Amino acid sequence: MRLLRPSMIGLGLLFASCAQAADPRLVPDVSSRAIDIQYSFTGEELLLFGAILYPDQRLPDQRADIVVVLKGPVRPIILREKRRVAGMWVNANSIRLRTSPGFYAIGSSRPIDKLVDERTAAIFELGLANLSMSPTGFSEARKLERFEQGLIDLYRRSGLFYENPKAVEITEGVLYRARIPVPARVPVGTYRAETYLISRGRVLAVASRDVQIRKAGFERFVALAAQRHGFLYGLSAVALSLILGYGASAVFRRR
Questions:
Q1: Do 187 and 164 form a contact (C-beta atoms < 8 A)?
Q2: In what order do the strands lie in the sheet with 168-171?
């Protein structure tokens, strides 16, 4: 038995490596690795595309599906709930989320619930309903669900959250492409474009590419000035406001 055990372990490792080698691979890419936001920026459409490489170039009998996700940057956020008290709207309950994405878009070749079960979708955070935002402190399940749903609805209306179960086109079972709309109000930062290959309820391969969304031109100058020289930037903003206010009042007095 002592002689057989190492050989059995070696066979197990060999089978595992063969199984991994038998899995297909993804070769993804994006139409633009960097998006510059200027004063005239009204949004952009990002193309996620690539190829599926199967072992021995043999297509499987079972159809494979593709899911693409573009998300980022992750940041903490405080959500406040307003209530009407004595005819006035005031802040009531609040909750802090540690890992809320500023932008999340998902596209797939078929609806997510047709591709994987709820557990797999939750593990890979596939879909708006499966985002993990990690609240700080203890929160009741109903309260957390209410706040998260409110955030999703708000971001969906502003275009920062996007979900399309028919966004991915697969050509001849090998090539895929999907267009993801990027709105004008998208936050700057590093984004990750992820691609998932799914077949028979299993995620067979995952690949990703980074995308930079940054400010350019005068907007970049103003943003850097505010970050690096906050005090001088504040004084300049106050002085500019006073000058503009004085100029406007002088014009109206003349009239």
A1: no
A2: 25-30, 44-53, 175-182, 168-171
DSSP 198-210: EETTEEEEEEEEE
In sequence order, the β-bridge partners of residue 108 are 67
Q: Is 1 helix (H, G, I), strand (E, B) or coil?
A: coil
pLDDT in tens, 75-110: 888 888 777 776 777 767 778 888 889 999 999 999
Within the chain, all domains assigned CATH 2.60.40.3880 are found at: 23-215
Decide if 176 contacts 52 (C-beta within 8 A): yes
DSSP E strands in 157-233: the ranges are 161-164, 168-171, 175-182, 189-199, 202-215
Question: What 3-state class would DSSP assign to 133?
Answer: coil
Q: What is the pTM of this model?
A: 0.74
- Does domain 23-215 sit in CATH 2.60.40.3880? yes
pLDDT at 220 over 80: no
Q: Which helix (H) or strand (E) holds 235?
A: helix 230-254
Q: How far is CA 126 from CA 73, 97, 202, 210, in A?
A: 17, 19, 13, 18
In sequence order, what are the beta bridge partners of 66? Answer: 197
